[in-house]
Amino acid sequence: MTWIKPSFLWMMYRCGWATKEGQETVLAVEIDREGFEWALRNACLSSYEPGVHPDRATWQRELKHSPTRVQWDPERDLHLRPLPHRSLQLGLSGVAARRYADEWTVAIRDVTPLAHEIHALVRDGDLDSARGLLPREERYPAAEGLLRSLQP
Q: Which of 27, 52, 48 lies closest to 105, judged by CA?
C-alpha cells in the first residue's frame, strides 16, 4: 500500500523533517482531481466506526474489497505536536496504486531542501519565517456527499 498524505506538516512528523533513516527524501506528488476523487469514491475507512458502519463484519467486507482506505490523523503544528483537528491520509493498493502511478500523477517535486529550511527556522525559533515557507494548504472542496461515509 502507498499513501497520499496531503498535509506537509503531518508528512514532516512522519519523516522527522527528512531525517529518519530511509525517509531522507521528501517528494511532493501532484495528482489530478479526477484521480483523487476516484480514490475517495472507492475508499473505506481504515478502522471500524460504529456510527458509520452498520456492524464490524460489514466494515471488514468493505475494507477487503476497497482499493483505497482513509484514515484521519491529528494535524501537526510547526513543532510537530498534534493539533485538535485531523488530516486525511489516503492509502492506495492494487488498481488504485497502479492508476496513481500511471494515470493520476501530474508532477513530482523534491521538497527535501524546503523541509530542511523550514526545520532550521523552527529550531532557531523563527516560527513566522517558517510559517511563511509552508506550502499553501486549503480545505478540500469535496462534492456533496463524497466524504460522508469516510468521516468518523
A: 27
